[in-house]
What does this fold into?
Amino acid sequence: MIYLICSVLASTLIFIAFKLFAKFRVDTFQAIVVNYLFACISGIVAFKGDVVPGKIIQQPWIYGCLGLGVLFIIIFNLMALTTQRSGISVVSVATKMSVVIPIAFGIFYYSEDLGISKGVGIVLALIAVYLASIKESDGLRIEPKNLIFPVLVFLGSGVIDLSIKYLEDSYVTESDIPIFSATIFATAFVVGVCVLLFQVVQGKFRFQLKNLLGGIGLGIPNYFSIYFLVKALRANGLDSSTVFTINNVAIVMVSTLVGIALFGESLSKKNWAGIVLAVLSIILVTLSF
It folds into this structure.
């Protein structure tokens, strides 16, 4: 359980970083690319063995890491596009509701137990995520022509979590967790640099020191959010559907409360109802194992 708590705290630090990005007008994409570099460095530092590129590319999980790294950049850009067209609440709901994909994968592929308590907890968790994430009083409004973007964010975010679970369970050894995470971030960094180079050619790139500092501040908690999630997935007594449910809903709940405490955000009655349901869902899912 300690790994799960650490993953939630690391993810909450990511939420704080993005809030500060908005406040100080940090170029989010530039900071994201820098973040991948420092997340990669964090993994290399944490790895206890020798980092030999020739050996890394021979690992059975290498192709999965390459795919995830590319997917990280693609989903980020889709999230940005969805925010522009439909609003931040749509992105938040699409991202968090995607937890249903790895949950379903764990239940059906790994035959994980689904009792009444856990089943009710998962349903409440999904409702909690929706209620805590929406900022518009009348709910979400998406124009039909823009529906494809949140759908792709939903599917992509779910596939990322599902892939991490499958790779860590099937191919990644305990000692390889740091370098496994570092390789994902290294791939995302390379793809991100290619996008930045394209911006340079187009004359749209403008470097600022705050973007570099923002990326450094984001990179370390980003690495540990993945590292501790993988560790939690490997912990005895916790199946993946339990881990993903608690992790996802706890991040929403804690981030919402941090938004109130640090940034003076106001919550609607729906948001508060979401927090209450989040607590209840965590209790039900926790009691199920």
Remarks:
- The longest helix spans residues 177-202.
- The chain has twelve helices and no strands.
